[in-house]
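Record Anaphase-promoting complex subunit 5, 156 aa.
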Amino acid sequence: QASLLKNDETKALPPASLQKELNNLLKFNPDIAEAHYLSYLNSLRVQDVFSSTHSLLHYFDRLILTGAESKSNGDEGYGRSLRYAALNLAALHCRFGHYQQAELALQEAIRIAQESNDHICLQHCLSWLYILEQKIFDSCVLLEHSVNKSLHFGLP
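=>
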């Protein structure tokens, strides 16, 4: 279902049916991170800011609690989850037009990424900072810097 929501939403279950299935699944096992992520995608589909935020935060909480993130990404898994949680939260707020909250979440992601010297996350933050700045005012200098850094790190 997650793949269908990302690639061809018309083939996925209707939002209400999918959420009902997810709620049943999470009722018996609330620690399934993937189910929270799918609930996040489903909530985005119907523009439900409260449910999408709730599901996104639970997704990252479950990654940290189960240790799944640290197993798949080396020793710094918890910190990685935290900085990408903040980055995703910033993207979510930006999508819903909550620019002040997006800026605060983005500042937190930048702070955590700087502390762990994660240049890839910082570059993603810079890209989102540019998007956020464009929503508020035009900034060509930020775009040029972002493109140069993206090329340096081999990012698209």
